[in-house]
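Progress against Task 2.4 (sequence-to-structure conversion) is shown through the following example record, which the project officer requested during the mid-term review.
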Amino acid sequence: MASRPLSKRLPWLDYSGHFAPFKAAVFAALFVPGLVTLYLYETDQAGSRPITEVIHQLGLWGIRFLAISLAMTPFRTIFAQPRLVLVRRMVGVAACVYIAIHFLFYIVDQKYDLVTVASEIIHRFYLTIGFAAFLILVALAVTSTDGMMRRLRRRWQQLHRLIYLAIIVGTIHYFIQVKLNVFEPTWFMGLIAWLLFYRLIAWRLGVQRASSIPALAILSVVTAILTGLGEYAYYATFTGVRASRVLDANFMFSTGLRPGWIVLAIGLGVTILATLWKLVDRIRPGITGGGARPAARRA
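Structure tokens generated for the chain above:
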């Protein structure tokens, strides 16, 4: 099968070469975080250490986009939105680009001293695993084309399962890098756990059961509890903060929601939206495009 001409491979076009508003909107949105970060840097609003802030923001958005690309498969099934497949690869490649620029700015911050950069990567564990995740993403981005998919065949799917390793390792890198204040990376890890456990359930029981309302609710509760226990274990093991204070803080809502509650709120929010979506789809067939589409075989 001949490859499509370049004019039909532009990111805002569909496979037939026609303009696709949804793809164009997503493509444009992918530039927004980078442009905002650049604006803050150029206008001296990036803090006292602007390059460090740029490095953090680009890396953060890179892993966020990676998580969004990972979420598209379950959301495609849960909400019967097959169009999400059209932009999943685009978002994944954007994640790799953001993390590549994140790495380039780290080199700039080290005064372009590649020997120092290499030494830091070798001797600092969080940089070692972060660089490993970056290399995985580069390999996945390079082989994400239709042509590479045809050439690699079954090996392509095996290779691209490394996305799960990349998101786990990248999240650990994020967690370690922020050091003491692990509030945000903790609930982020909880959401990644939700996405990965969903895939595990879909693999064992099928996507229809994994996307059922009871399964989504149970998954949300379980990942919220694991997030809370993970936060407890971290403070108990690596800091001088008494772990009992962390547990008490989970029930002192005057200080704000802890990571476990945030994961629970997001998970149950998805569950509620899925419930409403299914009800509307039953009451008014066609409101979502003629009823729910058949779910994909793989999660």
